[in-house]
Design a protein that fits this description.
The protein is α/β, with parallel strands linked by helices and 255 residues long. It has 8 helices and 7 strands; from the N terminus they run βαβαβαβαβαβαααβ. β4, α4 and β5 form a beta-alpha-beta unit. Pathway: Steroid biosynthesis; estrogen biosynthesis.
């Protein structure tokens, strides 16, 4: 990770869970990390922790709603003005609503598409443009996907969410192909975890918290730090190595 010291990483959805763990880990490894989320107060607390622990890097909080394109564009403009641009983009932000195909609300479907697919794509586009205009040829775009991006679980509440994650799988491979066509050495990687013990399920089942609790208690789940370790592994790969996708499951997870 020495080659990334002092360079700029953007981590979306950095306030809690996987995103917070990734942001903290990259700051620990000496990167200048812009962590964005709608709830910036939690990132500010995490940034203070990074200072208290004496990390060689820094965490810079930025408030951004990834369902609003104008806010994403403003964030990248701010990063360019304040920190020159983005060298690593971690598209971590994502959300789910229990909206089945047969009886779900279209508003929930649209929000999932706006954040999980469109927001991710806008961040990818802006990160690439930032690298290109500065002649950065060793940048990296990492999409935090899900095992749901590779198989459809028998759970109606998650079927539309699963569709957005299949889109992330396709977008990551499409990005890899476009980067090759552009004759750049910028790399694209997908990390697809199974059950991770975060606030995700509690947000999904905010009116039925017992469902979330039961899911996390049924097996020993992955932790946010496990995903952060995978991100560091990907970024530490030699320049000639393209890691396409990492699928991670708890040992006890059946599907």
């Amino acid at each position: 990770m020495d080659c990334w010291k002092g360079r700029v990483a953007l981590v979306t959805g950095a306030s809690v869970g996987i995103g917070a763990a990734i942001a903290k880990s990259l700051a620990q490894h000496g990167m200048k990390v812009v962590g964005c989320a709608r709830n910036v107060q939690q990132i500010e607390k995490l940034a203070s922790e990074c200072v208290r622990y004496g990390f060689s890097g820094t965490l810079i909080p930025y408030k951004c709603d990834l369902s609003v394109e104008e806010e994403i564009l403003s964030m990248f403009s701010w990063i360019k003005d304040q920190h020159h641009g983005v060298d690593v983009c971690i598209n971590n932000a994502g959300l789910a609503f229990p909206e089945p195909l047969l009886c779900g609300k279209t508003s929930g479907w649209k929000t999932m598409m706006d954040v999980n697919v469109i927001g991710l794509s806008v961040c990818t586009h802006e990160a690439y443009q930032s690298m290109k205009e500065r002649n950065v040829d060793d940048g990296h775009i990492i999409n935090i996907n899900s095992i749901c991006g590779h198989q459809v679980m028998p759970n109606a509440d998650g079927h539309f969410y699963t569709a957005t994650k299949y889109a992330v799988t396709a977008l990551t491979e499409g990005l890899r192909q476009e980067l090759r066509e552009a004759k750049t050495h910028i790399r694209a990687t997908c990390i697809s975890p199974g059950y991770v013990e975060t606030e995700f399920a509690y947000r999904l089942y905010e009116h039925e918290p017992e469902k979330a609790a039961a899911a996390y208690k049924s097996i020993k789940c992955l932790q946010g730090d496990d995903i952060a370790t995978a991100v560091v592994y990907v970024l530490s790969a030699p320049p000639h190595v393209q890691i396409g996708d990492i699928q991670m499951r708890p040992v006890e997870q059946l599907t």
